[in-house]
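Now produce a polypeptide, keeping tokens residue-aligned:
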Amino acid sequence: MSPDFKPPFWQIGGHFQTIYPSVFRKIPVPYQRERLELEDGDFLDLDWVKSGNKKLIIATHGLEGDSTRHYVTGMLAKFIPEGFDGLGWNARSCSGEPNRLPRFYHHGDAGDLKIVLEYAISLGYEEIVLAGFSMGGSLTLRLLGEYAEAVPSQVKAAIVASVPLDLPSSVAELYKKGKRFYMTRFINKLGKKIEQKAQLYPNHPHLKYAGYKEEVKDFEVFDSRYTAPLHGYANAKDFYEQASSKPLLKFINVPALIIQALNDPFMSSECFDLKGAEDNKNLHLLLPKNGGHVGFMVKGQKHSLVEDLAWEFYQKQK
């Protein structure tokens, strides 16, 4: 399905529709922070908007994002006036403070989102909607697929956008001419965290920062040197293959809306189909021509296409 919508006339092309919202779109929400201590000695910072409601939307950010990203706060701002509490949680190391352990977060680990969900249910929420963007979309889909039989009945719907369903080909997309600057930006941000961790764990075999700027120029090097060994993968190739959410789509038994812009500069063609899960009636794939990567701004409107479609999708599940 390809919903027809018009982005602002001056946002021409996928790059502009990606970059402008990332830099200039601001949707403030009145967060209150809670630190959730984990059994492994680490922590997660949860940013709440609570009004005593029994319904909750949980939004998960993308790679090197956080709970203040426009797509997170925009989604919360859409649901909160409709009787929802809101939760934007921060992956390990993404809340403005380094996490305590050598490990951090990655596309293939939905365990922390599972912990957040279980904690929210323990607070008494009766209806929960999950939203995820880019890497956060991967985590959301992995949660629903990997833990399909354990997903609580309180979870009524999931909405994800700009998800690298096929991680190997999506990573390869950022090596193409005119797209490498996205990868460079991520590498530079991740490098600052590795430098911090190298100072915290100077003797750790997989946290050496020496030579980073000269040698780490792309995801394959970064993920082979850091992500894979820190999180139990053989190398970058093994990580990309195992962390992809696409093979898990067939197991999802919660209504899920997947929105992918055809002009998303991060996406390969393999991210625009449900191969292997076409018969899963819980999945709904939308492929608008425009939107960029987690952009989706609509001409003359406050809310993005994803936020509007998310609310419509949730209402249809009632």
